[in-house]
Write the structure tokens for this entry.
Amino acid sequence: MFDWLVVGAGFAGSVLAERIASQRDERVLVIDKRPHVGGNAYDRYDEAGILIHQYGPHIFHTNSEAIFDYLSQFTRWRPYEHRVLAEVDGMLAPIPINLTTVNRLFGLALDSEGLARWLAERAEPRAEIRTSEDVVVSAIGRELYEKFFKGYTRKQWGVDPSELDKSVTARVPTRTNTDDRYFTDAYQYMPQHGYTRLFERMLAHPNIKVMLQTDFEEARKEIAFRRLIYTGPIDEFFDFRFGKLPYRSLQFRHATLDQSWLQPVAVVNYPQTQAYTRITEYKHLTGQRHEKTSITYEFPSDVGDPYYPVPRAENMALYKKYERLALVQPDVWFVGRLATYRYYNMDQVVGQALATFRRICQDIPVKKTPGLRPPVAAK
């Protein structure tokens, strides 16, 4: 008999398993259908000995000191500020769009004030901002929208930006200075020895048992447990009672090149050309030194494992039907991107899991004296 069954060994499930095991001294079984822990953040050494991210680049960034300190128990960190270039009109330019981007593409010599005026002249104000197209066109005009956002978004999501919720493109700001960092969070780091090692440390508690390549439907019939934490697709949990929720998937093509470097930054986007959306070169992320370099091409797809909930009004309405069922499930907690049908960054998933643990402790008092686990690594 386990006190808890946790479905999914990604951030949501692993954080909750660790907290329950270490702070409540209760027995936890973590299962995952994949042959590894870490969910989509899983990384591994390829045949060349280069550390790659199996499911595309995962960049840790947060403004939360509490989340950073929590994860610091399980890893040391490598400082890393993420930079992205987009190939536009045959040139590489920073994305998010900034002063350098506009000056380079249009052969200008604007300063910050000049760029603000230049963008304002091209902006097409909207009475109401509803879609991803509205967000961009109302802020920077149609020309930059066409160059950077329209083609990339259509590849990424399979629909036009005018058919997507405003949240998709609102995540990418426009800057009037030369700051070319993709993120501006206070804490920007990569796990020094990779994400997989972080997860292995997180789950290395005597109260936690991990079973991989394990199907939830089979496990729930064979294994005795008192309470359940579910991080998989919420529609699948309810046997698609109201129909399937749309998700966008990704296909990855990994390659190792017989050269030291391919590109000047970790990620280059391709909004105008190519079938893939971007190329990632991992040595930029990890700081690893190697005579060769390993890269990944990303191809968005409607087929494959669910990665991104598709943010459209009709999809959220469908999710709400499943959410109403979830809210009345006894002793079941739904946590994470797939279980709550929302796009979260890694730190947001960790924050959601920690908040869920606090609610669990409020609802279910601890009956035993918790065995507190000391930090296993310094910051």
